[in-house]
Specification:
The structure holds two protein chains of two kinds. By secondary structure, chain A is of the alpha+beta class. Among the domains of chain A are: about 220 residues, no CATH class; about 150 residues, no CATH class. Chain A has 26 helices and 25 strands. In chain A, strands 1, 2, 3, 4, 5, 6, 7, 8, 9, 10, 11, 12, 13 and 14 form a 14-stranded mixed β-sheet that branches. A six-stranded mixed barrel of chain A has the order 17-18-23-20-22-21. The longest helix of chain A is centred in the middle third of the chain and has 38 residues. By secondary structure, chain B is an alpha/beta fold. In chain B, helix 3 packs parallel to helix 5, helix 4 packs across helix 5 and helix 5 packs parallel to helix 6. Classes of the chains: A alpha+beta, B alpha/beta. The structure holds adenosine-5'-diphosphate (ADP) and magnesium ion.
């Protein structure tokens, strides 16, 4: 009995080659896409779960509430917060640690180089279960002249030598010290938000003169993690952050009387396990993922699988009508309904199983490329029981779904009717169901096309957005503010300016798209009600506007020949003194300050602190448009372009001609002037484009998976079209006898398949528009919403073309065949 | 009406060559009622298909209304066919998914006739063949005789000058068969040329002339004595 089923099943597979191939390939592609996405999703969900106390670890995030601006969130906090938590939350928190990265200059084995090193506290050892392979990490992190490194760091610098006991000389800030390698730990896996290759104990004494690193309450540089004591609820702790802020933040002398620290700063705790998927703000050790991406792709995986299942089901029901005769005969021979159902389910599951095997082959073939694209090594583990169970469960599910309807419908046929009438046993119900499923498939496909187009469009829009200044032919040399180059940066600039092809150059504190948050509060002299107003701040030199080709709405740029231009230095000023100076601002600033039109703003004065109890009255000499220097993903803030002797870390070069030639010239000069400082550069246009890298990746992935979804849907449509044509041969023959031309017939068949696609459009458009509009909301600068209309039309058109292409060939073949053949053997 | 001169049809499949018609000469005048008889496989349907322009001859001439259509392509034949020729088949060949009315209307669909006129003409022929009360029914709800009447209505709704019927009574019992024959006779009296293949000598008697085919040849042509 069973053997008979198997042999009938296999014979059926082979007999209906096209049907089997379409079904197996469609399912395999759908499963493969689903598995690939699931691998990515599972990897995203696995972040940091491997730490022993992962569920007790939290990070302290900081939100600055700046009046008149969006709150600014960073995942870092201030150096003094560690001690404050230890004292204030003594009953709740077991340990606190800080991570703060530096790029010290390292000397080892007569070589000089720079590596990223994290300064941290000894508690790290007790909080993060690092996998130590050599040395004593606890002792090492309790000693200010011991370096702890990971295996790849050790391998890179010490090769096969035993790293323990090797000595490197590190220079940072004012410190130069010999460090002994005290311990080596296994590289952190890729599925961690933590990313450090070397650790050094923070010795605050080394930073005495650089208090912003660990001493200031208004300077955030540290990722601060804390570990809850057993049995403590995080909610109880969270409820006390406000009181913590006002009790522990020792900043009374820095804020206006009558205000509280909690008016400006809000702390919050973020579980370590949430960091990867719930991005909170700037300052992560490495770029994180996003739960939205995970959800989008989970949904796509589900949808592709759904499309594949629908194919399976549709083709199975379509084909089943051709087997009415077999069923009838089996029934006449005494087969019970249950047996028939078993038979059809079995066949369906067998087909699904073959699809699974092929799908796994596809996954294995695609994995290297996929891993490469995602930048992480993903593997597909069959051996692990859950995966296997899930896959087999999936197959049973798909197989049952595909086999269920035909099994029930076919086994319910009346044999006498089928045998006597000898005609297609298709019921109008099954045709309707099939049409509904085709509509669903195309709704999904069209939705995916629209989404891909919108994401892609937003990416292109973002990358080509006019930031308000020149972005092409602009080279930024970084690190010019690091000791070794800092002292001679002006000389370096002059050397660069002498190079051929250099039009101009400017030293600035930040660089385009670095997202840097630097703010100063100002007052309006003679208008105390205005209070203190926080303005964004970019440190620039007098060549800034010329170099970046920023036009002026009113007034003028800084002029070196006027000795009074810029923000004066507090050096030599007496306490309480008010100095005089000038400043250039953007248009938003004058709106924020209520200074009227740009022309009216010229000559108006703002007062800004420039040192301990020394202030400067800056009169506005120029107003520039709202340029997007900070980040294209943020709303432009009111911003001052302050020229002063404050620290500057970047040199922007406006050049023409060969970039590569210029770059090597600049690098040569750099190597000569500051051999101990790493040479690092970027191009402005690339830096701006990189801001949309995540969208680029999203668009690529969406595009890829949409194509797969459509391919699977088309496979199904092709199969259906051939079944339909077969079913309608008689009808087509009659129509031809009655005078229908080939064109009439092709039109008839194509229209039949256009209807579901058109209906699908009507469903998909509003859904896609709604979804994409809420996605676009996250961008302050985004493509015009009206663009969604042509994009929808475009997607619908594409879907229709694809559908036509799929069924057209078949329709033409059918339409050309001689009608007498169809009518002859009835 | 039409004239076949030395007309032959050869079917070539992979190895076998079947001569279905061999130098057939037939002339059919306008308004005639012709029956074609002969044993199974002798080429009756082939002859009818060629007359109906559903198939093309391998050699010879086919003059239809003064026009030699032997070498015409499919589109041209289709055009002449839909203007002039109606078909009735042994197995009715109605479309299961369409109602009686829609099945009949189908014959006008490819003629560029406005919908209102189509409806009128469909109603008229339905009356004529006596199935108006079944207009909204599906073919599967009708008896064989009724289905064939729908097929007859469909064949004449376009005012075709000639009807080709391939064993129209083959699937019907004798009472229903006679009904259909009477209908054809009436159409013939109204001026329609009818060419019919049949196995039944009784039904062949309705025709004024019988062509006997054997193995692709015309053996005899009997003219029935005028009554
Ligand atoms: N499409 C075809 N291909 C090959 N042989 C055919 C085809 N149509 C008919 N024949 C052959 O031509 C001969 C005449 O067939 P047909 O005209 O259908 O006979 P009848 O209608 O008199 O029974 C038969 O031998 C038949 O097998
Ligand atoms: Mg025949």
């Amino acid at each position: 009995m069973f053997q008979n089923y198997i042999s009938v099943a296999l014979r059926n597979l082979i007999k209906h080659k096209l049907y089997s191939a379409i079904n197996i390939v469609g399912l395999a592609v759908g499963l493969a896409a689903c598995v690939l996405i699931t691998l990515f999703v599972r990897d995203e969900m696995s972040f940091d779960t491997f730490w022993k106390d992962a569920d007790k670890l939290y990070r302290m995030n900081t939100t600055f509430n700046v009046p008149g601006r969006e709150p600014f969130v960073t995942v870092m906090a201030m150096g003094p917060a560690k001690g404050a938590i230890e004292r204030y939350f003594a009953g709740e928190v077991e340990a606190v640690t800080r991570f703060n990265n530096e790029w010290p200059v390292i000397e080892y084995d007569n070589k000089v180089f720079s590596e990223e090193v994290y300064f941290t506290d000894p508690e790290t050892v007790d909080m993060f279960s690092l996998d130590v392979v050599a040395g004593d990490i606890k002792q090492s992190l309790n000693d200010n002249s011991t370096l702890v490194v990971n295996e790849s760091f050790a391998k890179k610098h010490f090769g096969d030598k035993d790293p323990i006991g090797e000595v490197m000389t590190l220079t940072y800030y004012a410190t130069t010290r010999d460090y002994r390698i005290g311990a080596v730990y296994k590289d952190l896996p890729h599925n961690s938000v933590m990313d450090f290759r070397a650790l050094i104990m923070i010795d605050e004494a080394d930073f005495e003169n650089f208090p912003w690193e660990y001493g200031h309450w208004f300077s955030v540089n540290n990722n601060i993690f804390f570990k809850l004591k057993d049995g403590v609820s995080i909610d109880a702790l969270n409820a006390r952050w406000k009181d913590f802020t006002d009790t522990m933040m020792d900043v009374r002398d820095q804020i206006e009387p009558g205000t509280n620290p909690s008016d400006f700063v809000t702390f919050s705790s973020q579980p370590l396990l949430d960091i990867q998927l719930y991005p909170a703000g700037d300052g992560e050790m490495k770029p994180t993922g996003d739960i939205k991406t995970v959800m989008i792709f989970s949904a796509i995986a589900g949808l592709i699988l759904l499309i594949a299942c629908i194919n399976f089901m549709n083709l199975a029901t379509a084909k089943s009508t051709q087997r009415a005769r077999e069923v009838a005969i089996r029934k006449v021979m005494g087969a019970r309904r249950g047996q028939l159902i078993t038979q059809f389910l079995g066949e369906s599951i067998l087909l699904a199983l073959i699809g699974l095997v092929l799908g796994i082959v596809l996954v294995e073939m695609a994995l290297p490329v996929y891993s490469d694209f995602l930048g992480r090594e993903l593997t597909f583990e069959y051996s692990d029981g859950t995966t296997l169970a899930i896959l087999l469960g999936l197959i049973a599910f798909v197989g049952t779904l595909g086999g269920f309807y035909p099994a029930i419908a076919l086994s319910g046929f009346q044999p006498s009717r089928v045998l006597k009438a000898n005609k297609s046993a298709e019921t109008s119900g099954s045709i309707m169901l099939r049409n509904a499923l085709v509509v669903l498939q195309f709704t999904i496909s069209i939705g995916l096309i629209v989404s891909t187009a919108v994401v892609y469009g937003q990416m292109v829009y973002g990358q080509n957005m006019d930031p308000g200044y020149q972005k092409d032919n602009m080279l930024v040399i970084r690190n010019v503010g690091r000791s070794g180059m800092l002292e001679q940066q002006e000389a370096f600039k002059q050397e660069v300016l002498r190079m051929q092809g250099v039009n101009n150059a400017s030293l600035t504190s930040g660089r385009p798209a670095d997202g840097n948050e630097s703010n100063s509060s100002v007052e309006i002299p003679g208008n105390p009600e205005a209070g203190s107003i926080l303005l964004g701040r970019q440190g620039v030199d007098h060549d800034f506007f010329e170099t970046y080709q920023i036009p002026f709405v009113a007034g003028r740029a800084y002029d070196l020949s006027r000795g009074t231009d810029g923000t004066p230095s507090s050096e030599g000023a007496k306490e309480g003194e008010v100095l005089q100076g000038t400043v250039v601002v953007n248009e938003r600033t004058i709106r924020r300050l209520g200074f009227g039109t740009p022309e009216e703003a010229i000559g108006k004065v703002v007062r800004m602190g420039v040192g301990d109890d020394v202030q400067a009255d800056l009169s506005i000499i120029g107003v520039v448009p709202d340029i997007n220097f900070q980040s294209l993903r943020q709303i432009i803030r009111p911003e001052m372009y302050v020229m002063s002797d404050s620290w500057k870390g970047n040199l922007t070069i406006n050049f023409n001609g060969d970039a590569q030639a210029l770059l090597s010239q600049v690098e040569n000069v750099w190597k000569r002037m500051a051999p101990t400082v790493p040479f690092s550069y970027e191009y402005v246009d690339q830096a701006l484009a990189e801001e949309f890298e995540a969208e680029q990746a999203l668009a690529t992935m969406l595009g890829g998976f949409s194509m797969l979804a459509i391919a699977v849907a088309c496979l199904g449509l092709y199969g259906l079209a051939s079944f339909t044509a077969e079913r309608r041969t008689k009808e087509i023959g009659i129509r031809k006898v009655l005078g229908a031309s080939v064109i009439d017939i092709v039109r008839l068949l194509i229209w039949q398949f256009s209807k579901p696609v058109l209906v699908a459009n009507l469903i998909a458009w509003p859904l896609a528009v709604w979804g994409m509009m809420s996605w676009l909301e996250t961008f302050p600068y985004r493509i015009d919403t009206w663009l969604l209309i042509p994009l929808c039309l475009f997607a619908g058109f594409i879907a229709l073309m694809i559908a036509w292409g799929t069924v057209g060939g078949n329709a033409a073949k059918v339409a050309r065949s001689n009608p007498i053949k169809a009518l002859r053997y009835e | 009406m039409l004239k076949l001169h030395n007309l032959s049809k050869v079917y070539r499949t992979d190895e076998v060559e079947t001569v279905a018609l061999n130098s057939v000469n037939v002339e059919i005048a306008s308004g005639e009622f012709v029956a074609i008889m002969g044993p199974s496989g002798c080429g009756k349907s082939t002859l009818l298909n060629i007359i109906g322009m559903l198939d093309s001859p391998s050699s010879g001439d086919y003059i239809f209304m003064e026009e030699n259509v032997a070498g015409y392509n499919e589109a041209k034949l289709s055009n002449i066919r839909k203007q002039n020729i109606g078909f009735i088949f042994q197995s009715f060949n109605l479309i299961d998914e369409l109602t009686v009315e829609e099945n009949i209307e189908l014959a006008l669909l490819y003629h560029n006739i406005p919908a209102s006129e189509r409806r009128e003409r469909v109603a008229h022929v339905m009356d004529k063949v006596g199935i108006a009360h079944r207009a909204k029914h599906m073919p599967s709800q009708l008896s064989g005789g009724q289905q064939q009447r729908v097929a007859v209505a469909r064949a004449v709704v376009g005012d075709q000058a000639m009807i080709l019927a391939d064993e129209p009574t083959g699937n019907l019992d004798s009472a229903h068969g006679q009904e259909v024959m009477e209908m054809l006779q009436q159409l013939n009296e109204e001026g329609t040329t009818i060419v019919m293949v049949t196995h039944s000598p009784a039904h062949a008697d309705y025709a004024r002339r019988t062509i006997n085919l054997f193995d692709g040849h015309v053996v005899t042509e009997n003219l029935r004595a005028a009554e």
